[in-house]
Amino acid sequence: MKNGKVYLVGAGPGDPKLITVKGLECIQQADVILYDRLVNKELLLSAKEGAELIFCGKLPGRHELIQEQINQLLVEKAEQGLVVTRLKGGDPCVFGRVGEEAKELAERRVPYEIIPGITAGIAAPAYAGIPVTHRDHASSFAIVTAHGRAEKEQDFVNWKALAEGIDTIAFYMGVGNLSRISQQLMAYGRSPSTPVAIIEWGTTNQQRTIIAELATIEQQAKEQQVESPAIILVGNVVELRKSIRWFDSEISIPSLASL
Ligand code: SAH
């Protein structure tokens, strides 16, 4: 009855060349592309002529409705026999709701593939000259979101475990929660002098990196008017930027004067 298929594809973190070969092929072959806000629009230039491009930017407070509509569209288009590429920023399995979309497809017996991508929590630090692990400085790395929980008084983050047990922590969707992130880590024993980097628009030509310590990062971020999307990276590996900074090395950033 149907030969449609859905590809759930990671578009990479920003630099359009950081998509996988397989991901790019999915863009080139798709009849329909549904893409998120953080996907670099340059990638859409590779779509074939006549491909339908559908923007799925999420409206604040209306996630559920929108997500349901997206799920529905994926199923409908595939059932019409079309090749559908669902493009998500970074990796689709990292805060990308791929689990919900794939579940819907599985339940409706629509064939699909998941194509991984390069996630911002690793790529943005890399472009800032910060490897998330290092033989001498960090043997563990966690990807965390503290998004929106504080206001709702539900906090699913195990702050104690993070503060005590994880060397490098990448916080996603954390700009509005910076105060809570730094307070909690220090409350559970992480040193106030732990280096922190905030990397805004990582891997794009707007990339900006702000360096401070746990105790000072909130203030720094305010002064520098940090905005989303940004990765907040906590851990001693941040120090490595001093010696291996590369991508943004020509840009002079006042807050880095002391480095
Ligand atoms: N699936 C994506 C993450 C989606 S959640 C991935 O794997 O990267 C959205 C969050 O990702 C943003 O709030 C921000 O914290 C982070 N992010 C995405 N793109 C980014 C970029 N270019 N620079 C910095 N952070 C980014």
What's the topology here?
Layout: E1 5-10, H1 21-29, E2 32-35, E3 52-55, H2 63-79, E4 83-88, H3 98-107, E5 112-115, H4 120-127, E6 141-145, H5 159-165, E7 168-172, H6 178-187, E8 195-200, E9 208-213, H7 217-223, E10 230-234, H8 241-244
Parallel strand pairs: 1-4, 1-5, 2-3, 2-4, 6-7
Antiparallel strand pairs: 7-10, 8-9, 8-10
Helix pairs in contact: 2-3
Q: Indicate the low-confidence ranges by residue numbers.
A: none
* Class per helix and strand makeup: alpha/beta
Q: What is the residue-mean pLDDT, rounded to a whole number?
A: 92
**What is the H-and-E element order?**
EHEEHEHEHEHEHEEHEH
Describe it for me?
By secondary structure, the protein is α/β, with parallel strands linked by helices. The protein folds into 2 domains: 111 residues, Cobalt-precorrin-4 Transmethylase, domain 1 (3-Layer(aba) Sandwich), CATH 3.40.1010; 125 residues, Methyltransferase, Cobalt-precorrin-4 Transmethylase, Domain 2 (2-Layer Sandwich). It contains 8 helices and 10 strands. The protein has a 5-stranded parallel beta sheet with strand order 3-2-4-1-5, sandwiched between helices. The protein has a 5-stranded mixed beta sheet with strand order 6-7-10-8-9, with helices on both faces. Helix 2 crosses helix 3. The structure holds S-adenosyl-L-homocysteine. S-adenosyl-L-homocysteine binds next to helix 4 and strand 10.
